[in-house]
Every structure is written in structure tokens, then in C-alpha cells.
Batch of 2 targets.
Target 1
Amino acid sequence: MIALKESDLRKDVAKLLIVRASGHALDSQRQYPKWELKNCDLKRLLKEGIGGVILFGGTTIELEQRTKTLRAWAEKPLFLCADVEEGLGQRFQGGTWLAPPLAVAQIHRKDPEKAIALAEKYGNCIGSQARLCGLNWVLAPVCDVNINPKNPVINLRAWGEDPLTVSELTCAFNKGLSAQGVLTCAKHFPGHGDTSVDSHLELPTINHDLQRLEEVEFVPFKAIIASGVDTVMSAHVLFPNIDPNQPASLSSKTITKLLRDEIGFDGLLVTDALVMEAIHNFYNDADAAVMAFAAGADLLMMPADPDEAIDAICKALLMGRIPMQRLQETLHRRKKALAKVEGLNPSLFSQEEKMDSLLIECRQDRVLAEDLIRNSMEIHHHVPPGDLSSDNNLVRVDGVLPCPFLNNLSPAVCLPEEAGYRTTLCHEMGIPLWRDDLYEPLVLDRFQGGAFFLQLFVRGNPFRGSLFEKEPWLATIRQLQGLKRLAGLVVYGSPYLWNELNEVLDSTIPSAYSPGQMHEAQIQVLSSLFHFYEAPDFKAHTIHQFTD
Amino acid sequence: MIALKESDLRKDVAKLLIVRASGHALDSQRQYPKWELKNCDLKRLLKEGIGGVILFGGTTIELEQRTKTLRAWAEKPLFLCADVEEGLGQRFQGGTWLAPPLAVAQIHRKDPEKAIALAEKYGNCIGSQARLCGLNWVLAPVCDVNINPKNPVINLRAWGEDPLTVSELTCAFNKGLSAQGVLTCAKHFPGHGDTSVDSHLELPTINHDLQRLEEVEFVPFKAIIASGVDTVMSAHVLFPNIDPNQPASLSSKTITKLLRDEIGFDGLLVTDALVMEAIHNFYNDADAAVMAFAAGADLLMMPADPDEAIDAICKALLMGRIPMQRLQETLHRRKKALAKVEGLNPSLFSQEEKMDSLLIECRQDRVLAEDLIRNSMEIHHHVPPGDLSSDNNLVRVDGVLPCPFLNNLSPAVCLPEEAGYRTTLCHEMGIPLWRDDLYEPLVLDRFQGGAFFLQLFVRGNPFRGSLFEKEPWLATIRQLQGLKRLAGLVVYGSPYLWNELNEVLDSTIPSAYSPGQMHEAQIQVLSSLFHFYEAPDFKAHTIHQFTD
């Protein structure tokens, strides 16, 4: 009798877990085999009742197949989610990749109504593509107020730098996303915007008092909860003035007292990934899962060992350390959320649609992607035509194995080469560019003679910390200007780096900024900067490759 | 009446053309938009009767969907082919990527029977995966005898360096491939093995007299034709002693007189890609198509402008410059070949198979991939364990945007890093490694102190010419040995470079060679070289990521 009960309990507890899988079909295709379950484990866990899967990597065509397979393995409703804050194309090739949310915030400064309309379309674009690929839950929007320009992990993912902008834009986004029938997620409660360390690597602390948190961090969360967000994700951040002992994601004071009782949120609360070092460094895996659940979390994202997490929670429930009522509450919320997405048709495309290659991206998605870039880029001066045959096109990226926005035929490589530049690609694994000299850091003899056209792809990226902050770009700009060897500058990504460099930039230097890094951003920035469309001496075919 | 006839003629002529498309579904996903047709053009041409499509890029899951779509667009039987000489995984992620054919030739030297058995399995593996993905024609085997070690385009793609080995192995390969029901292709007639320029870039000339050609180049083609190959591909190579005026692919003396009349081949003759510079540089596109057809070619691969090619051939037929009988012959051969593959079931996987992730690669395919690497690699000495914290892992590749065999988690990067090395990735777009010094070419101050573990990924690659021949690796080896700073050497790819470097290599230096470059080659070489399995001080998880 007890045994039977225990096996039923195990099945119910399994429903709390969201595990990670590759969007690719084959084990050999996994990009991160350390974190992505093998198919045999995935299949077993789904049979045992695991509550959901978060997917990373692959193409939209593969994702569609993959979600079908996962549904069939599970044999009952489950959550299928992805971290597609910037469009399906951010994670799944073939989907639309939009300029990051902070681009919309920049538009909001000049034209709030336009920005709000764009944010709603942004959500709608993601929702429609997610649904077509068989997902039923989108882990967006980020509701953190990006107070700290040095924030290595939120940064361009935020919808603004002040609580009002973030509230307006995330509510609009949420409206557009919800309209497609998928579940939405406000993250990272109670706010991850004022941190300077990456919670993937360490546990950040935010020391603000409650009054400040009420005035800034909580504002967008309250707004979006009031306007109807389905789920909230908790942050792995320590707020000593809310709970001096536990990070938000493991803190009953934060999740239950603040979020549930005071703010009144009654949807699902999911933790941020439990494998992140902010938690993993300090807590035994099973303990972290039990603590999060005990604190009030409904869903546990990516526990390091799913079987261990289930066992530990079952034990805590059976021993009465966590009341059974906690489980009932959670299962009730889960059922309600799944009921809401029951109507989504997972067998998406008709064969007809497939044949017409309408597939994932529709015409208005492409228009939106282009509009966002056009409205958020800045162009200062144009590159004069001339003989540039010995000039350097220096392209800086974080990494190249692989680089999601750059290939041999990318505009950032091809277009300057058409204009006579020679590309040098600089990245973490390359030969260093610099020597230890505060004023003349760039080692010039590592390049050919002539001027430098700099293209800096820089943004805070999870896991990479603030890699670029160690790079002396400011001094390099000064050095090249002093030598009259700066031909131009483009920053793709961080508005903070752009502002910093722009302050020392000679006003005659051709320069540009775009918050987006993808091909669409490169093509728009460079066409405009080089006047490609007007200059008949640039080969038209190069540009047509990208524009048609 | 004439109009009706002309439109029928156009449809028949269209059947001669093979056009190129991406394996991805969306126009925006094309890797080479210059060469890969947009879906609207592809759809129109297929409706107009285009005879076949050659596919490049994407994953096997996408390819399966793509071939279904193309069949539906065409509404009648057509050729669906790919250049998967080294396995589906060479072009389509998710398929098996096998060590290059020359690896089997190396095994043949020691154990001919084993090599012949491997070659048959090799063909079978490709045939079964091609069929599952919906292809009906595999453009392999390469029957060229790789006489010239400096051959930039054949090289490791060849099944040997002497006519007998090539004959035995390609016949065995052809048998294994045919057994899966797909069409096979012997290329590049009458032989591309003794060239030193890349026909993708220039027109090569082979000046040998007929006696020598009979003794070497023709041998494997005669053998494979006798044993039953379905199609032959002609080379863009000038053989003055066969035809002093036209390259083989446009030469009636070569295709009709030599191949048809003398050798007696009665299957389909397809040209190599007509967009290649060897042809494109010298002939107007329409002329090249007409000349190839007039010379006796049945199928025209990748004409630069399909509509122009059709028009020009129609005109030549209507004006009597090419007899109508030429077209009848070709259509007859085409019908026969398509009838042979009619039985291949394009609706491949059952949903059940998909769910079990059996998909494309079966167990014996994986075993074959592992066997080929194991049997063809060489290991000289092992790397002694020690404190290597300041040593350099210098990885040389042709290009990184993208690099098909390397990512952040590849064994060639991760395993040496586990052992304390720091990776520097060197490629065409990076900061140069060398200065102009014959004896000490490597600029040491561009690296950190300590020794160098060199991993050279080098093989002739189409379009890249002999890039690596300009790189002074021999002098670098001598320089580093002189300084006692050479920690080890691995060559992945070219046996010729390996032999050359090996001659100056101090016999105590740990070194290894593998003809393959993919993960499987990296893991086997490095596990063995570093004794990873035996040494408990290396973290087991790293290696398990790749082996399980």
C-alpha cells in the first residue's frame, strides 16, 4: 500500500521537473552533451512523468520534429519551452532573429507609442513561430531593469533601463506573445538588472533596501502580473534585505511571502536553471531542489540530476518536512496552465505550407526584423570611396567555434572586402592583439599597413562574463586616431561601449552602432555606412545575396 | 504546331539539367546564395521539367523533408543527388562522416582484403543513409588515381595512388553503394588524379600520352564500368593527347569516341559542375551547355543559368546543329536510370523509427566510422604527463567561419586544455604566425612561453587551392625542435605533409597522424597520444562526452 503510494508520489513529483534536451534528433548532434540528456534517458524520464523539456539548438525544422517526438514519448501533456527572448532564430536556425529588447527601449525614448507597438509585434512574432514549432511555453520577457551598464548577463536582454519603460514594453510584449496562445514567463524575479556578476558563474548580491526595490526592481513584475503573465522565473540572486540567508530562487520569503502573498501572483513559479554555478557552487544538487520546492517553487528548471531531485523531494514529502499540500497546490497550478495550451495544435504545418516554404517566418516577421534594426541603428558619416587596398577590416567577436552571426559570406566580412579591405578576425582563441602599453596597446606590426576599419561585436553573454572589459578599445581608438589610421568604427551590441568610444571619437570618423549583431544588422549598417546602394563601383551581386 | 513542338522540346531539354539547391528549407538559410536557387525559382524550374537537383548543406532531418518537397514540386520522377563521397555527414549534419577514401587505400597496403571489405561497407553506409534521406543518386566514387601528391582537389578523396588499388576499392565501394538501390557515379573521367591546379579555379592540363593514360588513368574507369556503375562524371581537364582543343567534359573525342565507342559505357554521362571556373572562365555559359550536350553528355550539372542553357540547346536542336537523335538517346538512358530507382521508397522513416531516434546512423555505421579511424591512424610515442600549464596548443585550420570539424567542445580543443595547454587557433583570417625568415619563421612572441603542441588540419580542399603549401611548417618544426619547444605534432588529413614533416621530426617527439579530421579522429588520436584512458589525473567526464 505504501509502495503503491510512493510510486504515485514519484510520478507526481516528476511533474515538477523541466529537463534540458538538444533540439537536434541525434545524441551525436548535441552541442552540450554535458547538459543535454541522451535520448535513452530523456525517453525514460518522460515515461516516468517528467513535467517538461527545455530545448536548445538545431533548426526550426528539426525542432518541429523533435517536439512531436517528445510529445509521443511523454504520452501526456507536458511543457515544451525554450529561451527564445530574441526570436526563434536566436536558438533555432531558420527562425527569425530580432534585435535585442534594449533596441526597443532605445526607440521608446524617441517614440514611446511606436516602441510599444513594436514590442507587441515582437511578442507576437515569437509566439507564432514557437507555436508552429510545437513549443507551448516561451521563457520571456526579461522584466529586469538594466540599471547597471556593466551587467554581464542581462544588458541587451532587458526592455529598458528604467522601471516605467520596462513595464510598458514587457506588458506589450506579453500581450503579443499571449495572443498566440503560448504561455509566457516574466523573469528573473525579484530583479536581476543591477548585478555585475553572471549568475551562471557566481552568486550575485543586490544590497538595495526594500524601498528602492519597490521603486525599481518590483515595478515591472507587478505590472506584468497585473496584466496577466502565466509564469514567473526566480533569480539566483541574493537580496539580503528580503532574505539574508537564501538566494531568491530558494527563498520562501521571496517566493511565497513576497510574490505569492504580497504581490498576489497565482500562476506557476519556475526557478532559473539549478545547474547554474550561483546555486551549484553552494548547494548539494538534491538539497537545492528540495529547498526551491519547499520555498514555493512549482517547477524546477534543469536540476543537475533529475532522479536524485525526485528522490529527495519524495523523501522530504514523506517525512513531512514539506507538507503534501505544497505538492497539491503546484499540481493544481500546473494542470491549469497545461489546460490553457491544450488547444494549441502540435501538428502544425500542412504539407501544402511546407511545400510553399512558408514554414516558420512569415512576411511580417521579416518586416519586423528589418524595422527593428532600421529604427535602432545610428550612422555617423559615411566611408568615402577611395583606394583602400591595404586597409584592415578588424572584426572582433567573442568566439568563432562557432560564431552564430558570422560566416564566410556574412556582410561584415564580404562588404568591406568588396571595398578593398583585408579581414582579420580577432577572438578569444586567436593570437593577442595587444601589448602592455596604456597609450599604444595595439601591436601594429601584427597587421598589414594602412588604416583600420573596426567592427566590434560586443555584448554581455551568459557564461562569458565581461570578457571585453579587459580589452583596451578606448586606448586603441585614441592610438589609431593619433596615427591617422582609423578608417571607421562599428559597434554591434553594447550601447555602453558605443557611448564610451564615441566620446573620444573624432567627429569626422565614419562610425555606426546597432544593438543587433545578426546579418540584417550588418547589412543595414554597412550598406548605409559605405553608401553601397548609391556607389556603382561596388559589385551589386554581393549586396543582392543578402537583400533578396 | 511549331509552337507546340517547341514547348514539348523545351520540356525534354529541361530534363538534361541538374540544378543546385540548399538542403535547408528556407531561402534565408542558404549558405551559398550565389549558387543555390531560391525556392520560387526552384519550384518554377521543377514544374517546367528540370531533371534533377543536387543538394548541399543542412541536417539529415532537413534533407529528408527537403527531398519530399522537391519530389512534390516536380510531380514526376527526378534525380536527387549529393556529393557525399565521405558519408552523408560530410554535407549533412547528423549523417555519418567517414575517414576519407585514401585512408582505406592506406589500409589496403597492409591488408588488401580488409580494405576491400571496408570499401564495400563504406559504400553501403552511404547508400543506406542517402536512401533514408530521399536521395536516389550518390556522386561517388572518385575513380581518379592520385598520382600527384600536390593535387589540390582530389588528394584524400581518391581511393589510392595506383590504378590497381583504386580499381579494387572503387569496385567494392560501388557494389556496397548499389546494394542499397541508389545510383552510383564514377568520376572524373578520364582522370583528375595527376593535376596540380584546382578545376574549381582554373583549367588543368594533363599532357600524358595515350599509352600512359591507358596504363594508369583509364584503368579504374574501365574496371568500374565493367562491374556496373550507373553514371560517369566527366572532368574539366584538358588532355591534349585525347583532344587538343576541348577539355574532357566538352569533348566529343573523349565522351563519345573514347568512353562510349571504345570503352563501351552505356549509362548516363554527367558533366562536372559547369559553373566551375575551368569552364566558366573560357566559355560563355550557354555555349558550354550546348558544347557538352553536343559532345555526348546526357546530364548537365549546375549550368550557370538554367533557362539560358535550355534555350540554347533547343535552338541548336531546332537548327540542326545537334541531331535530335542525341536527345532521344539521352532521354532513353535517363528513363532507364530513373526506372531503376523507382522502387526506392521516399517516405522513409516510420514515426516509430523517428521516435526511437534510429534515424539515419545505425549501429554498424558508427562501428565502421570508428574502425576506419582506428585502422588508419599512426601514433608515435605518447605525451608524458607533466606540468604543461604554460604550453601552447596551436591548432591550424583552413577557415573558422565555420569550421565543419571543430567547435568549442571538440576533442582537439578540450583534451589538450584538460592537460593544461592553452589553445591558439590559427586560420586564414587570423593574425599571421610567421615572419620572413627561412630558418626561424614562427614569431614566438605572438604566443605565450612554453612548448608547442601542434595540431595541423590540412588537406586539399576544393576552392582553397594549396593554401597550406605557403606555410613553412617544416621550418617551424625544425625551429621549435632546436629550441626544445616542440611538445608534439598531429597531422589530420594529408599523408604527404605528414611524411614530409616526419622526416625531420626528432624520434622522441610524440606525434600522430590521422587521415580523418572529424571528432572521431580527434578523440582516437588524442586519447591514445595522451594516454587519457589510463591516466587518472585527466577528468574522465571530458572524454566521456565524446565517447558515449
Target 2
Amino acid sequence: MSLTVIGSLAFDSIETPFDKRDEAFGGSATFFAAAAARFGEVGMVGVVGTDMPDQNLADLRDLGIDCQGIEVAEGKTFRWGGRYEADWNTRTTLFTELNTFEHFDPKVPAGYQDSPFVFLANAAPAIQMKALEQFKSPRLVVADTMNLWIDIARDDLVGLLKKIDGLVLNDEEARMLSGENHLLTAARKVLDMGPSFVVLKKGEHGAFLIGKDVHFSLPAYPVEKVVDPTGAGDSFAGGFMGYLASVANFQPHTLRRAMVYGTVTASFCVQGFTIEPLVANDRAAIESRYNEMISFITL
Amino acid sequence: MSLTVIGSLAFDSIETPFDKRDEAFGGSATFFAAAAARFGEVGMVGVVGTDMPDQNLADLRDLGIDCQGIEVAEGKTFRWGGRYEADWNTRTTLFTELNTFEHFDPKVPAGYQDSPFVFLANAAPAIQMKALEQFKSPRLVVADTMNLWIDIARDDLVGLLKKIDGLVLNDEEARMLSGENHLLTAARKVLDMGPSFVVLKKGEHGAFLIGKDVHFSLPAYPVEKVVDPTGAGDSFAGGFMGYLASVANFQPHTLRRAMVYGTVTASFCVQGFTIEPLVANDRAAIESRYNEMISFITL
């Protein structure tokens, strides 16, 4: 398996100023894998409850995703409810029911343990570490995190940062983790904590990547009609890692291109609910928008 | 004169969370000209009171700026006071004393009237129009505006938009002028009002240019220590127009490079009070940061 993701599968109930959707199939690993699958093989490690319809996993398999790492446990699947305000940047969590994800004990299948590319999607840092330890000698490990873990599991997270190659995080998380307000200063401080590079996502304001030998900044794709931002960050990571795994390297010039692919896959994600826009847009659609992005940023 | 700017000269009293400065030499034309002068000749049309120290105009001349279009009128120079919050995006006007600028009647010197490149810095649209009518056949006319004129002089502004080639405005102004929230949609609507291109400035989030044949988007230069954002927009315009005038064309690829020069000159501007950082950084410093910006945005 060239790329493996460890993370959540969930049902999301979303309210926006314009629309709503109950129990939409989501989760960090789901969005990541749906985005990464356009670039090559990807295996998922996660847990669902017995309430997960077979059709949802069949939809993932139809995208070419390997689902043997998805455990079906007694109980219900992780559920999350949230509401977005009209600026899309303000998100209120309405409820969180961890259910089977509460005691998620990641078991990386034997066939995934030699993955060269590993993405640790958002989960408690201790769980991310437990998953990471099951890989033999990954070439590139990238992790995501969230405010909650920076707040309640900082020591575990700091420990994890020493074991990974890249960290993706958003502006708020970068400020919280580093204690710095200026985003470039914040990202540099996170670099000092261990990773070789940091991808800092600023939503509609784009993203930048900074590492020892690379600094690349790019705007977001200007999506005119956002439907649901849920999963955008994981889709970004999926496009980013999917591309890296597909070309089997992470040289600075490859990381730059991967940032554009991440931007493109995230831009598709926000145009609909759940993974629907990722299913609807194939690699040709991704390449078309990639070329459009390149025209926006090239001198 | 290859480039002429019409606009204000002023004394700005600035408060920031970290510092303050009283009666700093400023004004839209001042910042524009100080930025543009690094690229070639620039003439200023404006008005000051008899209280303007000779030294300030001498400083402009030292930058190579032609000051024969600056009228000295009986009375005081335009004064403005403002306070910035720690996010730099929230600006409160503490006072505005128009003084001699209230009845500004622009008189374009004969030697400027054949300028191929003209910038109408922020002023009442009727004044901008009165200045524009004095030019013989400019090749490229670009204007700036502000919320006040969109609010109280909308008809005049709409009339002006039909006579100019380019408009520079910030995100808030674009939304107000177009009635659209999404910035790309807003910019497209402004294009429909007349100009061939729109430069939309988003402060720390960068800027984009959109026209019939061009769409270019770029991040801001990541200034780590902002001192005073006053004049950033005019400095952007000065770098943008100064570069265009220096190469005497405005083909799409030239407009793209001009956006980078605008970004660079604005980034210097915010690193100090008044035009001090623009005086302190010569063309070589601009080229050095231009190349740094290119490295941040190139695949």
C-alpha cells in the first residue's frame, strides 16, 4: 500500500445559512481517502459502528480505496453536528458523539505496514502514535491535529511532532500551538518542534508550506459558491499526500506541486456535502482545475 | 512626465498598539510617489498649506519626484488621525481635517499633460475626473477610491469608472461597490462597470488582479513586524504603476509582474512610519525582495 491514512469515519449533521444535511457520511479519514484515491492506491484504518450502511463502504471501494483496515465494532459510528455562519470561518459544534471512535485502537493491516507514505488524520496524539508505531519504515509521515489536542494532550502532541516529517494545521491551531500571532513566525516555531515541514492552511486565504529548504505560498481556488466546508482540510491533505505518493518523492518542487493539488481537491470538497463532489470530479477534472490554478499564480 | 499622480499630501497622526507618531508626513499621492519613484520619473499634483515644511518637499525631490504640480495654498495642510487595532485590519478614524484639501482644484502642469500613465489617488470622484480631463491622451489611467465616495458620490464614481482603465480597491470597498460578498464575483461586477482590470487588495491576505485577459492572484509578503499600515495601499499602487510606466506597457504578463512589485513596495511601507521605509529601501532592496517573493510563489 503506497499510502495509508489513519483517522475517523463519521456521520456529520451540517447546518449552513443556505442549506442543511443530516447524517452525511464524513470523517477525517473518509475525506482524506476520497481525495487521495484520485492519485493512486490508498488504504484506510478506522472504526465504524454496526450502523454504518454497507453502501457507504462500497462507495469508498468504488473510488479504489482499500477498506480492509476499517474495523466494524459493536455500537454506533462517530457522529458530529456543526453549524457554519455566512463567512464560513465561524463554526459552532452542536454535538459530538464519539461512540465507537472513543476507544479507537488502530490496527494497521499487515499489507499496509510497509506503506512509504502515512497520514495520521486528526485523532488523539496517543492514538496517532499507536498507529505510527505499527509501520515498518515509512518514508514520509504527515499528521493533522486540532485545538482540542493542543489544549488537553499537548505533551503527547509534542512527543508526536518529533516522530513525524510534516504537520498540516490551520491558522488558529498554529497560533495556539506556537503561542505566536504572526503565522510565518508561528510556523517556524512549529518547525523547531520537530517536523521537516509545516503546511499552514488559511481557508479562503490560501495556504503556505515552510520547511528547511522550501517556502511556498499560494491563494485558495476562488470557489464562488461554497456549500459545505466540512472536510476541506482533510481533502487538502488527501490531494497533497495522494500526489506525493503517486510520484514517490517529496523534493521541494514536488511539495510545491502537492500544495496546488491539495488546494484543488479542497476546492472541490467545499462545493457540496459529504464526499459527493470528490466522487463527482475525476482526475481529469482535478488536472483541469490544477492548470487553471497554475494560470492564476504564474508570472 | 511618464507617470503622474493626483492626490493628497497630509499629516497623519497614528496610534498602534505598539507605538505612535504625530504629524507624520503622508497622504495618498505622497506614498504613491515615494513608491513609484524607485522605478522612474513621477510627477505629483496636489495641494498643501503654508505649514508644510520645505524639508518634506525636499525629501520628495531627493527621491527624484517632480513637485511642480504641488500647489501651496493659504491655510493648513490636510490632517488625519487614526488608530489601528492589533489585528491591523481594524482602523478607527480619530479625526479628519481636510483644510486646504477641501477645495482641492487640481491643476495639471503643462509638462505633465502628456503623461502616458496616470494614477488618480483617493479623492472625490469629481476631483479625479477634473484632473483626468486635463490629460491629452493617457495610455493607462488607474484610480483608487474609498468607502466614503461609494457612499456619498456613487454617481460620480460610476461615471469615472467608464473613463478609466484600471481600479484598485480593497475587499471592503469591492463588496460595497458591487453589492457582492464573494470577492471574485464582486471584482467581476466592477469590471462590468467599465475598467479593463481591477486590482483587489486583501491586506495581509494578498491581492488579485482580474481583467478580460488576465487573472493573477498572489499572497502578501510575510512581514513579521508591522509598524504602521498607513499608506500600504498607495504604496502598492505606486510600485504597480511605477513598474508599468518603467517598462511602458501593460500586457497581461507585465501586469502580473507589476502586482509583485506592488506587493513588495507595500510590504516595505508597513515596516515603518510615513515614507521612511520607502526612502530607506532602494531599487536594489526592492529587486531583492521581488526575487524572494518569486521564490515563494513559483512551482
